[in-house]
Amino acid sequence: MTMPAPKYRMTALRSSASLPEAAEKHWREYLMEAAELGALMFCTCLFSTLLYSAGSPLQKLALPERAKPVLMGVAVATVTFVIIRSPFGRRSGAHINPAITLTYLWLGRIHRWDAICYMTAHFTGAVVGVLLARLTLGKHLSSAPVRYVVTLPGMKGSLIAFAAELMLAAVLMGIVLFASNHRRLAPFSPLFVAMITVSFAALGSSISGFSVNPARSFSSALFAWLWRGIWIYFAAPALGMLGAAAVYIRAMGRNRVYCAKVFHDLQSPCPFPCRFYQLYQKG
To answer: Structural domain tally of the chain?
Structure first.
């Protein structure tokens, strides 16, 4: 059984498009990406404050310290799942991470001007999200131990933190690519991302702070004005995801990357050079 190709599949810009042309066609998607990461950062700050701040009402529950990273992971994973499945996420592709956008640029699934604007939107949205959290939560967010949820290398040092972020980023991108480009698994890609987030939060928080996102680490470091190890959170996610993409296309072929969306519903407009409909024309 075949599925008719969606009418929007050719809406992506040609490679010769300029920045003004890209912005004219896709400014809505840029704002959506900014709003998505802004919401994620606001919720991350909120959940971290509730779990770790001395002034939080949850302190009365005397939660075990080992349980807090898991609860944090569940909360962030839930928000991430909702963002990916939201109308904004379904339309923009829900990258919410400059390293993911950079990887799709290397794979040829997003135009260079769109990639630049997406990454700019990520950093802008992340900063705005932390700013709104600061205005809402005040000293509970800025004071230790929360301190704007800044990501820092753990007691095992910078190299171990770099290795952890590199590995986590590679696993995340590998699963996203495999799931989102497989006909039977594609509908469940948001769930896979959520499950990975919970696991990573539980395993990686004490080693590297669990970022896997340059914009997320930058926005927290900016407000905390604490830049120790910031290079880790820029280099490791990008290298890890690019490495995973290289392994994927070597094993599966570059033509097995159908679209740059993390989750494709075949209904929302697609701003990318999209061939996702081909998955449903096979067999």
So the answer is: 1
CATH for 87: 1.20.1080.10
Region of 143 on the Ramachandran plot (φ > 0 left; ψ -120 to 50 alpha; else beta): beta
Mind listing the pLDDT tens digit for each residue in 54-68?
A: 999 998 888 888 888
pTM of model > 0.90? yes
Q: What angle do CA 175, 179, 180 make, to 5 degrees?
A: 115
38 within 8 A of 59, measured Cβ to Cβ: no
User: Hunting for tokens 């131990």 — which residue is that?
Assistant: 145
In this predicted structure, which of 80-94, 138-152, 200-214 has the lowest mean pLDDT? 200-214
Residue 178 within any structural domain of the chain? yes
Within-domain flag for 4:
no
- Say yes or no to pLDDT of 165 above 80: yes
Domain membership flag for residue 262:
yes
